[in-house]
């Protein structure tokens, strides 16, 4: 008697291999699609970050250059040794809430009830081609310091105080000088010519060493430098005067340039035609983690209108 066994349902080995290959193919395509989507998303986010950093640079430079002081010297230097560019100029503050003076311990206090502050500030923009950093620093509206009787100072600059009998420098005795005196050093308005380096001129606004020792305006700018942009290369800076003439620096050569200041009535040292009316800046940002991603930006910032006297 013949017995017929029913055939069990199942897959052959070839069918299983085909199914595995198709599954791996679909999974591979899905994985590649997800990876490409993540890479695109990461690239777009990196581009947005770079664009935001560039806008921050433009916004701060435009705001400060728009209030460029009409009388102070403007410095623009480039040094090939460290591939650096430096721009130093004086501008005015736009808000009375920014009027602060700074103590030696770098704590800030309101000067609403304290006389002797100013609304003009020095600003220093510095780019290092070696590090790719753009740093910015703004001087204090006033620096607080004190002078004691046993310090060598220019005492004729200090007025007032109680009359005390003691020996002061230069042999003066019982001259009416106070035993100590607290005062503020405000940013010095520079109108000199004949130099392209801001350090010797700005640091003359300094009371030397001693208790609560004061520092010069330029030294303060160096100490307060803070990075505003990193991974910056190929920076090019142009200052355009009223006649359309451009002074260009890019760190590839050494150039020491200064536009002399002038008096408030327009006479004297500098010519109003030499005053910068526009600053142009171009630079490239290379993203530190996204390979091959770099973007070049170019901005133009207008200065204030030239006053007529």
Provide structural commentary.
The protein is of the alpha+beta class. It has two domains: 67-142 and 186-302, no CATH class; 144-183, no CATH class. It contains three helices and 14 strands. Strands 9-6-5-2-1-12 form a six-stranded antiparallel sheet, sandwiched between helices. The termini are far apart.
Q: Strands of the biggest beta sheet: in what spatial order?
A: 9-6-5-2-1-12
Name the helicity range. 10-25%
**Termini separation:** 128 Å
- Which outline best applies? elongated
The biggest beta sheet reads: 6 strands, antiparallel
Quick check: average pLDDT?
77
Class derived from helix and strand content: alpha+beta
Tally of individual domains: 2
Low-confidence sequence ranges:
103-116, 152-179
Q: In DSSP terms, counting alpha (H) and pi (I) runs of 4 or more, how many helices? A: 3
Beta-strand residue percentage: 25-35%
Q: Radius of gyration over alpha carbons?
A: 32 Å
Q: Please write the string of helix (H) and strand (E) elements.
A: HEEEEEEEEHHEEEEEE
Strand tally, please?
14
Q: How would you summarize what this structure contains?
A:
This protein is of the alpha+beta class and 309 residues long. Helix content is 21%, strand content 29%. The protein has 2 domains: 67-142 and 186-302, no CATH class; 144-183, no CATH class.
Outline the secondary-structure elements.
Blueprint: H1 13-65, E1 74-79, E2 84-92, E3 100-102, E4 108-110, E5 120-128, E6 133-138, E7 143-148, E8 180-185, H2 198-202, H3 217-223, E9 226-229, E10 232-241, E11 246-249, E12 255-259, E13 276-286, E14 294-302
Antiparallel strand pairs: 1-2, 1-12, 2-5, 3-4, 5-6, 6-9, 7-8, 10-11, 10-13, 13-14
């Amino acid at each position: 008697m013949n017995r017929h066994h029913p055939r069990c349902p199942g897959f052959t080995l070839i069918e299983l291999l085909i199914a595995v290959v198709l599954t791996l193919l679909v999974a591979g395509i899905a994985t590649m699609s997800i990876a490409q989507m993540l890479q695109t998303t990461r690239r777009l986010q990196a581009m947005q970050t770079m664009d935001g950093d560039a806008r921050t640079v433009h916004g701060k430079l435009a705001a400060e250059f728009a209030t460029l002081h009409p009388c102070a010297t403007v410095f623009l230097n480039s040094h090939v040794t460290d591939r650096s560019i430096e721009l130093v100029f004086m501008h005015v503050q736009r808000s009375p809430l920014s009027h602060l003076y700074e103590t030696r311990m770098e704590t800030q206090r309101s000067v609403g009830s304290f006389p002797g502050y100013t609304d003009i500030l020095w600003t220093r923009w510095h780019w290092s081609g070696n590090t790719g950093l753009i740093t910015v620093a703004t001087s204090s509206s006033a620096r607080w310091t004190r002078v004691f009787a046993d310090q060598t100072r220019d005492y004729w600059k200090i007025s007032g105080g109680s009359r005390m009998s003691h020996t002061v420098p230069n042999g003066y005795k019982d001259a009416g000088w106070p035993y100590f005196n607290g005062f503020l050093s405000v940013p010095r308005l520079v109108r000199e010519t004949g130099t392209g380096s801001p350090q010797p001129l700005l640091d003359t606004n300094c009371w030397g060493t001693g208790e609560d020792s004061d520092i010069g305006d330029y030294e303060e700018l160096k100490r307060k430098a803070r990075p505003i942009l990193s991974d910056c290369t190929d920076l090019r800076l142009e200052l355009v005067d009223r006649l359309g003439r451009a002074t260009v620096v890019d760190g590839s050569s050494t150039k020491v340039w200064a536009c002399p200041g002038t008096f408030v009535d327009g006479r004297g040292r500098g010519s109003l035609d030499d005053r910068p009316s526009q600053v142009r800046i171009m630079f490239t940002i290379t993203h530190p983690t996204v390979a091959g991603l770099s973007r070049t930006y170019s901005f133009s910032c207008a200065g204030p209108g030239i006053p007529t006297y």
